[in-house]
Amino acid sequence: MKIKYKYILAVIVIILTTAFVTDFVVRRTIVSDKNIQKEGVIEEIQGSNSDLNNIKKDTSKEDKISNCPFGLCMGQSLDEIKKLTGESNVKEVSKDFYELHTVPKPHPSFSTYIVLIDSEIGVCKVNAISDDIITSVYGTELKSQFEAIQSQLEKTYGKEKKYDFLSAGSIWRESNDWMMGLLKKERFLSSYWTLKESDESNKVIKLRNINTISLQATAISQEKGYISLGYEFNNFQDCAKKIKDKEASSL
Hints:
By secondary structure, this protein is α+β, with helices and mostly antiparallel strands. It has one domain (2-27, 75-249). Helices cover 38% and strands 25% of the residues. The protein has helices at residues 2-17, 40-66, 78-85, 140-157, 178-183, 203-208, 236-249, and strands at residues 90-94, 97-100, 112-118, 122-129, 133-134, 161-166, 187-194, 210-221, 224-233. Strands 1, 2, 3, 4, 5, 6, 7, 8 and 9 form a nine-stranded antiparallel sheet that branches. The model is unreliable at 17-59 (pLDDT under 50).
């Protein structure tokens, strides 16, 4: 568990220092209870209308959450996340980065969720991390899980740009070196969906305010690895700029 947590923190470092895509990678309703005073028929009708309006607003909120990855939406505040998941399920692991033990829409392949939540901008990035996957030195089981998740993503977001290669000059070229190459960061298995806010070809993309999706396989050892899935929302660059500005101001 300590080893895996180290990798979770490594993901945070990646988020802090880079955006997901380069040419190389080669990267949940609380209906508020209002006590409406009903005095006479008119006030009773007004109270009913107010109640209906509240229900409509909350239904709209539910619909929005149901259309966000894992039920986590762009711009949600930390307080909103705590209401959705339960405060005890939210743990700050670094400045503005929070580990969620549960999410409104969990996926069976993932057990840990790391969310970047700026105090002013709100949620701008979500990373889901799988449990450890025991695999052969050929990476068979890890690759199988990667491909299964990739296939699910394709159904919603369309065709990805996939990177599956071994770096030039690597000595880990044999089939039984597959996991070692991945461990040494000389082999890569990742897929990216670069999505634009103006993209009219996929209404889901625009509704979810997603800019970039990344799926990546990572090795922990020659016989163990995990899958990570990241979503950068359209406000991610604003969050990234604030982080960099804070870092620069400390010099």
